[in-house]
Amino acid sequence: HSLAGIQLCVFLHKDLLWYASGVESAHVATKLAGVLKTKGGVGICLDFLGTSLLFVTSHLTAHDQNVAERNADFRTICRTLGLPHAHRLKREFALLSPSKRIGEDLTAKFDRIVWMGDLNYRVDLPRAQAETLAKEGQLEPLLAHDQLIRQRA
After folding, report:
1. Hey, what long-range contacts does 104-111 have (CB within 8 A, 24 or more apart)?
2. pLDDT over 90 for what percent of the chain?
3. Cα–Cα distance between 19 and 114 in angstroms, integer?
4. Helix, strand, coil shares of the chain as percentages rounded to 5?
5. Core vs surface per residue 1-33: b (16+ CB within 10 A) or e
6. Are 56 and 37 in contact (CB under 8 A)?
7. What's the pTM?
8. Euclidean distance between the first and the last CA atom of the chain, given in angstroms as a whole number
9. CA-to-CA distance for 113 and 40, rounded, in angstroms?
10. 82 phi and psi angles, rounded to 5 deg
C-alpha cells in the first residue's frame, strides 16, 4: 500500500500464508486536511495465529522545533487510519457495547504494533556535541535528550 512516496510492504513466507487472515490496508495524509500527501501514514494489518498485527510506516513533520506537529501527525494517524475496517470491527466486537468502542484509537485495537518510518524526532543537543558523544559511545546523554523518548513518556 502506498501514499505518494510513503510505501509499505509486508512479506510472509509461503509456508506461513495459511496462518494469516484478515489482511487489510489503509493510508492517511496528515497535512492540509489530507490534500498534501507528503506526510502521513500507511498501515497494513492482519491476524496471524490468533494475534492481531499492525504495521505502520509514517513520515512525520520535519525540523527540530516541530515536536508538537509530529505528535499531532501521530495522533491523526492513530485516529483516522481506519484499521481494521469498520465491518470487521463490528463482527469482532459484536459483544462489546458501542460505548466501549467509542474513542478507541488505533493503538488499542491490535495485539502487536510495529511502527516505523521517517519519524523526524531529533536529539535536542547542538550537532557537534551530539556527534562527539556518539563517537565516544556515550549513549546515556544522547538518550536523555532524545525527543521521541521524551514524547513517549
Report:
1. 105/75, 105/78, 105/79, 106/43, 106/54, 106/56, 106/77, 106/78, 106/79, 106/81, 107/78, 109/52, 109/54, 109/83, 109/84, 110/45, 110/52, 110/53, 110/54, 111/51, 111/52, 111/53
2. 71
3. 19
4. 40, 30, 30
5. bebeebebeeeeeeeeeeeeeeeebbbbbbbee
6. no
7. 0.82
8. 31
9. 17
10. 80, 30
CA 98 to chain centre: 25
Helices (runs of H) and strands (runs of E) counted in the chain: 6, 6
Closest-CA residue to 22 (of 72, 73, 92) = 92
Burial of 83: CB neighbours in 10 Å, binned 0-12, 13-18, 19+: buried
Alpha helices in 9-126 (DSSP H): 67-80, 86-92, 98-101
Closest CA to 59 of 46, 32, 40: 40
Which segments in the chain show pLDDT lower than 50?
97-103
Q: Strand runs (DSSP E) across 2-81, as ranges?
A: 2-3, 6-7, 20-31, 36-48, 51-59
pLDDT value of residue 93: 58
CA nearest to 26, candidates 45, 50, 49, 11? 45
Distance CA 145, CA 11 (A): 35
